[in-house]
Amino acid sequence: MHIVIMGCGRVGSTLAHILEDSGHSVAIIDRDPQAFRRLRAGFRGRRVTGIGFDRDVLEEAGIESAGAYVAVSSGDNSNIISARVARETFGVDNVVARIYDPRRAEVYQRLGIPTVATVRWTADQILRRVLPEGAEPLWRDPTGTVMLAEVAYHSAWIGTRTSTLEDAAGTRVAFVNRMGEALLPRDDTVLQEGDILHVMAAENDMDRINKVLASAPEEESH
């Protein structure tokens, strides 16, 4: 597949190297020719100097034969404009844009442009390391509505079926990490000591779920 990347910063250059190592052809666009210094000496892809939403620049990068377009420059507006041009003008279906403002990310997601809201993602990664209790977000959908989270639970839940826990907490157990291996729960799966619990839930429901799991299960929940 030919992939066009706008933005030769740390993210863009890293993506370019990974994609090339995976056998894809890559073209990378940046308005600053000095940015291409981040590319390794053996990089075989195209280096295109210019603005990523300029049609001539995109054509020089091979957008007409591209299977994917990635916009990861430092500007939200540039990323979303170029992503829309790639999709709406050149018909590239597989398009993603990096957005620093998560509020904008939600709007653009509704326009059909998949986005990665880096501020929220970075904040989540930090919170996972400083908050030992409660929910630790691992993933959010781009609109911020649904999240996958690692959740702490009261020790009294050990020995309880995950299906019973789901009913009590009103959530979906996505998987259990048991001794370093991911386990997809079945109806008869029972929480064991040391299990790390991951749930999929609406973000605005996480406070309630945390409260339920932080307390011992009620007698009728067993």
TrEMBL record:
Residue stretches making up the RCK N-terminal domain: 1-118
Transport keyword on record: yes
Coiled-coil residues: none
Alphabetized InterPro entries for the sequence: K_uptake_TrkA, NAD(P)-bd_dom_sf, RCK_C, RCK_C_sf, RCK_N, Trk_Ktr_HKT_K-transport
Keywords of this entry: Ion transport, NAD, Potassium, Potassium transport, Transport
GO molecular function: potassium ion transmembrane transporter activity
Residues of the RCK C-terminal domain: 133-215
A cellular component annotation (GO) from this entry: plasma membrane
Classification via PANTHER family: POTASSIUM CHANNEL PROTEIN 2-RELATED-RELATED, TRK SYSTEM POTASSIUM UPTAKE PROTEIN TRKA
Designated name of the protein: Trk system potassium uptake protein TrkA
Organism field: Sphaerisporangium album
